[in-house]
């Protein structure tokens, strides 16, 4: 599902903050455009929330302007109380939904879901809906980049559809290195040129891998992207969702303003952990933090990397500790992984190991049978089942 772009029309900063939190707490990825005037016309908002609590005439006029400017935008009017006459005025001006403040969460999120469904129906004839997949590590060295890179390569290889991987880590990102490419440009070049970041310009910034995957490399600066870049990073993801069917994001292992923008944009958040006490403890804390920050907890998927049956902490214990079932397990195979990383050739293209087959199955479950363009890998006898 492509991320919805929303604008909030209000002079009340606290209202804008609370509405933003409410939008991002639902199951549909929603990005809030902070300054609509700075956005290109091609990125018209999908959703507009208009505050008519204190000044109804000005709010009604704002609804009329929005409807005249953006014919397809879904407009939510938010009032202080239920007033039949005010509801009628808002609907005549062009509002699609009417809520009193604070809105009931179930009703509000239901309206957002309906907006997303209409957008997907409208886009169905032109292109399939995009999917944003964020890979986040429970700790450094958990294998997050390895998982993200191999999943992204398989997405491009199996679907033959536009796919891109974005390395969001500052300076120390290794996506390009793992894929054996030398990028000329980085994510900083993209966020500093959002005003002209169309498909043609984007082609100049990315490196194309032989699998068909496009790579937007990590910044080479230690201090960027930073908190001041978070809005631009969020806008970058919205732009990419219009041109790519799959956006894979390596978000590292720390929660900051930019990685939070990725979590808000995600259709699925793959939390990569290892079967050891530090990893599981960190994963517990990260799950709780994601909930506190308002990113929908229903998007979280647990990926257990480097699993071995001889380890003391079993999958059931990990699931109990995290409160989530494990979506996929990857077996521990240091030699195969290190050989692939040192050669710059991903597992899917380098060998026919069981680990490569696990990545293949993992990716096929993500894309579903309708988008699968290749035959399934041959079955192998293995005690490791499922994904990474």
Description:
This protein has 388 residues and is α/β, with parallel strands linked by helices. The longest helix is centred in the N-terminal third of the chain and has 19 residues, at 105-123. The protein has 15 helices and 13 strands. An eight-stranded mixed beta sheet has the order 8-9-7-10-6-11-12-13, sandwiched between helices. A five-stranded parallel beta sheet has the order 2-1-3-4-5, sandwiched between helices. The protein folds into two domains: 4-123, Response regulator (Rossmann fold), CATH 3.40.50.2300; 131-371, P-loop containing nucleotide triphosphate hydrolases (Rossmann fold, 3-Layer(aba) Sandwich), CATH 3.40.50.300. Mean pLDDT is 87; it is low at 36-42 and 379-388. It has helices at residues 13-24, 56-69, 84-93, 105-123, 144-159, 175-178, 187-191, 199-205, 230-243, 257-265, 277-292, 315-322, 334-343, 347-350, 354-367; strands at residues 4-9, 30-32, 47-51, 74-79, 97-100, 131-137, 163-167, 207-208, 214-216, 246-250, 268-273, 300-307, 326-331. The two termini are 23 Å apart.
Structural class: alpha/beta
State the end-to-end distance. 23 Å
Helix percent band: 40-55%
| Sheet with the most strands: spatial strand order | 8-9-7-10-6-11-12-13
Instruction: Pick out the low-confidence regions.
Output: 36-42, 379-388
- Judging from the principal axes of the Cα atoms, what is the shape? globular
CATH superfamily of the largest domain: P-loop containing nucleotide triphosphate hydrolases
The CATH architecture term of the largest domain is 3-Layer(aba) Sandwich
Summarize the main sheet: 8 strands, mixed
CATH class of the largest domain: Alpha Beta
- Strand residue percentage: 15-25%
Task: Write down the domain tally.
Answer: 2
For the residues shown, what is the average pLDDT?
A: 87
Care to count the β-strands? 13
Tally of contiguous helical segments: 15
**SSE series:** EHEEHEHEHEHEHHHEEHEHEHEHEHHH
């Amino acid at each position: 599902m492509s991320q919805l772009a929303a604008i909030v029309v209000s002079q009340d900063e606290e209202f804008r903050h609370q509405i933003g939190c409410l939008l991002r707490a639902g199951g549909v990825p929603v990005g809030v455009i902070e300054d609509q005037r700075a956005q290109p016309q091609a990125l018209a908002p999908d959703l507009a929330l208009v505050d008519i609590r204190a000044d109804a005439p000005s709010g009604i006029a704002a609804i009329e302007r929005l409807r005249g400017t953006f014919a397809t935008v879904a407009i939510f009017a938010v009032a202080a109380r239920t007033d039949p006459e005010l509801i009628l005025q808002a609907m005549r001006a062009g509002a699609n939904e009417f809520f009193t403040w604070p809105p009931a969460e179930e009703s509000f999120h239901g309206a957002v879901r309906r907006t997303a469904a209409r957008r997907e129906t409208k886009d169905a004839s032109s292109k399939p809906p995009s999917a944003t997949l964020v890979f986040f590590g429970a700790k450094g060295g958990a294998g997050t980049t390895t998982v993200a890179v191999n999943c992204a390569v398989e997405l491009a290889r199996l679907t033959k559809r536009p796919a891109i991987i974005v390395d969001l880590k500052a300076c120390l990102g290794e996506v390009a290195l793992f894929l054996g490419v030398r990028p000329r440009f980085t994510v900083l070049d993209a966020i500093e040129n959002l005003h002209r970041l169309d498909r043609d310009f984007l082609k100049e910034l990315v490196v194309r891998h032989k699998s068909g995957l496009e790579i937007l490399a990590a910044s080479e600066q230690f201090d960027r992207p930073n908190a001041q870049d978070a809005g631009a990073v969020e806008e970058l993801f919205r732009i990419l969702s219009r041109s790519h069917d799959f956006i894979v994001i390596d978000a590292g292992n720390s929660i900051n303003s930019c990685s939070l923008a990725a979590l808000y944009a995600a259709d699925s958040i793959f939390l990569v952990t290892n079967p050891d006490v530090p990893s599981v403890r960190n994963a517990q804390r990260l799950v709780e933090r994601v909930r506190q920050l308002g990113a929908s907890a229903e998007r979280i998927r647990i990926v257990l990397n480097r699993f071995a049956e001889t380890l003391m902490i079993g999958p059931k214990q990990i699931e109990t500790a995290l409160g989530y079932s494990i979506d996929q397990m990857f077996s521990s195979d240091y030699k195969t992984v290190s050989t692939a990383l040192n050669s710059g050739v991903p597992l899917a293209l380098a060998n026919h190991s069981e680990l490569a087959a696990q990545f293949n199955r993992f990716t096929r479950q993500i894309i579903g049978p309708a988008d699968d363009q290749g035959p399934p890998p041959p079955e192998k006898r293995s005690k490791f089942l499922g994904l990474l």
